Every structure is written in structure tokens, then in C-alpha cells.
Amino acid sequence: MTIHFKTGLLAFALLGSTALGAVNAQAADKEISWIYCGDSIDPIHVKYIKQWEDKNPGWAVKPEVVGWEQCQDKATTLAAAGTPVAMAYVGSRTLKQFAENDLIVPIPMTDEEKKSYYPNIVDTVTSNGQQWGVPIAFSTKALYWNKDLFKKAGLDPEKPPTTWAEEIADAKAIKEKTGIPGYGLSAKTFDNTMHQFLHWVYTNNGKVIDGDKIVLDSPEVLAALQAYKDITPYSVEGPTAYEQNEVRAIFLDGKVGMIQAGSGAAYRLKETKINWGVAPLPLGPSAKGPGTLLITDSLAVFKGTGVEDKAIEFAKFITSPGPQGEYELQGGAGLTPLRPSPMVDEFEKKDPFWKPFIDGISYGGPEPLFKDYKGFQNVMIEMVQSVVTGKAEPADALKKAAGDLEQYK
Fold this sequence. Notes:
This protein is of the alpha/beta class. The protein has helices spanning 9-14, 18-25, 43-55, 68-80, 95-100, 111-116, 147-152, 164-178, 191-201, 219-231, 244-252, 264-269, 308-318, 321-328, 342-350, 354-359, 373-388, 394-405, and strands at 31-37, 60-66, 87-91, 126-127, 130-131, 134-139, 142-146, 209-210, 213-214, 258-261, 276-279, 293-301, 365-366. The strands form four sheets. Strands 1, 2, 3, 6, 12 and 13 form a six-stranded mixed β-sheet that branches. A three-stranded antiparallel β-sheet has the order 10-7-11. The chain is globular and about 70 Å long. The protein starts with 8 loop residues before the first helix and ends with a helix.
């Protein structure tokens, strides 16, 4: 779910927009059009759309379901062509790009609204001191380990690694004593290759960008990249062939010792015979506490529809604690709760595996916001791939990547 903005954005956007623009032109004055990513509308959202409409006579919310691969491009196309939808589901990583291109309006949050979320989540939608979206989906990662493979390798099956050093040592033991890869490292040319690496960055108190200053080339990030190099020999063979869901499938088949994955993996593992556990992500030497990359998707409100204020009102309603709690805690979707609540407490009691996904939030960090997110992503993927394939040493790869990122910030 990424967008690459270019100088010729309008020319790109006009492609395929004519028919949709005509439909928009005929839309009702009191209609909130919504590009909704996925295969179908979640029944919980259907319920709360009706509830909002009942409380707002004369207004209608009109979701248009668009597949994940096309939904953000479609929102961009319409907005840049001057026929925007009122609201769209987008990856928060794109908000700075939309804002810089003057396509969306800010969605200010009160102090009370900000405090309702877990720490650092509001940062995922904040650029230049303003919020540009309302979080609607959130994911974090934790470490899964195969207890039977730990036992076969002579490791304590009830003792997952808590540090990178232990993680690398455990992966080495599994590989050497069982012949099965000890760790599932993903380095495919795919967006989650960057995400997987950023989990390591945020478990060592590292950063990519601070304000408008690139701080990638730091001891904390170098240590993360070095750890990637060190664990590669004990990981799945040819990691550039795998993205995280493919690595997860290998783990579900019992063919890898450890992976980092979202809560959705736990629900899938319940359907297997694997003896597994889940724990906080292991920490690097500079960590101040448990960390993880904080990934959110958001509702962005587009400029020029004439219904911006009402769209913001609806976006805040559909993501308010009641509707949002029902939506995100259905289980199996890989979502982490956005806010603490009694409902979340009950989920933790029922399924203790939830705890690591929430514990990592306090010291976690947001997806870095760049004007050209695709360019940023490509630089990070190239950096990781160059190290895990042995084409570059970590320090050289990091220095090069830090320089390359300047053009995209």
C-alpha cells in the first residue's frame, strides 16, 4: 500500500479518472464518498455507518470497495484530477506525500483525543506538527518461536531469546543441530522487507529521520544492520526470495525456528500442531525498553469536496473507541488495538499472546514520513539486500543509504 508521487502527478492521475469523475459530479450534496480498501465492507463498519446516518439526517456515507493493490492509487488519481472522494483508507506512510501535494486537509486532534491512544501512535499521522489522518488499523510485531525445534537444538523450549545476541546464538544452534533454518529473515523486493528491518531499528533505540534531518547513519542503526548480517547464515536460504507472509508460511509448516510476525499468526498457529510461543521482540544493546515498528492505516480527508468538516466528523466517529474496539478485536486480522480499554484487558486475559504486541508500543517508533515514500522504501530495501547478500558491509551500506535518502525527505 504505497504511492509514488512524481512531478507529473496530474498527468498520471488523469489516467482512468474520467468516468469516476462523472459519477462524483452527480453525487448528492450531502454525501460522503469513501474509498474502502479490501474485498468487502466489514459488517461492523456497515452497522456504524447506519448508526451515524440515523443521527445525521440528510447525510449518506457511500463506501466504494476497492482492492488493496488499487485503492490508494485510485484515491490519488481522483484527487490529483480535481475530482476527489471525500475520504479514503490509506497507509499512514503516504500522508506526508498527500499533504505536500495539497490533496488532503489536516485533521486536528484535541489533547484528550491524543491521550486516548497508546503512546507514539499519533506520531504515525503527524507531520510538521499537524495530524493528517485518523488511525483506523494498527499492527505491531512480536517474536514467535518453535518450542520443539528449540528442544531438538538443545535449547530451553520455554526460554525465548530476549536480546539480539541470544537470538543469533539460538538461530545458530537450531541451524547447526537440526539442519533447519533458525530464523526467518525476509529480504524480498517488497515493502515489508523495510518494515521487518525497522523492527530491529526500534528495538535498539534507533531512528531514520528526526524532523527533516536524516539520522539513519547512527551507531544504533549500524548495530541493527550488523545483526542482520550476523543472523543471515542461520536464516532461511536465499532471503531475497521471501516476504514476511511467505516466511510465516514456512513457520506454520514447522520449517523455521523463529520469526517476527503480527497477531494474525497466532490465530493461524492455533489450527496447527506446532508447539509454539510468542514473546516481545529481542532487544539490541542500546534499547531502553521493548520496541516495535508502529504501522497504522488511516482515514484521510481530501480537499475540495465541500464536505470536509462532515467527513472529519464521520472519520472520528467510525474510529472512536466503541466502533474501533469492535472492529480491531475480532481476531485473526493481525491488528493491534489502538487504545487501551477494558475490552483489551479482557482479550489479554483470554489470550495471553496479546501482551507482547502491546508491550512493544511504549518504545516503538512510527513509519518514517517522507515526501517520496516509495523512494525511501526502495533505498531501505536496497540497503538490506546489499548486506544480506554480502555485496556490501553494513557500515558502507548504511552510509550510502543515508546519503540517498536526502532527496526523498
